[in-house]
């Protein structure tokens, strides 16, 4: 059996530390809570530990988002 043929299982990946927007975040490296927040990562201002920002959204090229209405409305023509 090849390892590359197995599907990815997030449940089996274990605990992942991430920065959560609009919440109190403590650095896993030093325990302080002052962050330099960027677009994709947040970096601890004291020890420079970088964490990915967990927004609950998917990012990437070609992503379509709808906000309460269908993303694609059929044309009236
Ligand atoms: Zn730190």
Summarize the amount of helix as a percent range. under 10%
What compounds are bound to the protein? zinc ion
| Strand fraction | 15-25%
Distance between the termini: 53 Å
Q: Report on the biggest sheet.
A: 4 strands, mixed
Element string (H = helix, E = strand): EEEE
> How many individual β-strands?
4
Lateral arrangement of strands in the main beta sheet: 1-4-3-2
Q: Unreliable runs, pLDDT <50, ≥5 residues?
A: none
Radius of gyration, whole Å: 18 Å
Give the overall shape: flat
Q: Average pLDDT value?
A: 82
Query: How many helical stretches?
Result: 0
Helix and strand content put the structural class at: mainly beta
Structural summary, described in words:
The protein is an all-beta fold. The chain has a domain at 14-54. The chain contains no helices and 4 strands. The chain has strands spanning 19-20, 35-37, 41-44, 50-54. Strands 1-4-3-2 form a 4-stranded mixed β-sheet, with no helix packed on it. The protein binds zinc ion. The site of zinc ion has 8 residues, from loops.
Summarize the structure.
This protein has a 4-stranded mixed beta sheet, with no helix packed on it. The protein is an all-beta fold and 77 residues long. Zinc ion (ZN) binds next to loops.
Q: Secondary-structure blueprint of this entry?
A:
Elements: E1 19-20, E2 35-37, E3 41-44, E4 50-54
Parallel strand pairs: 1-4
Antiparallel strand pairs: 2-3, 3-4
The protein binds zinc ion.
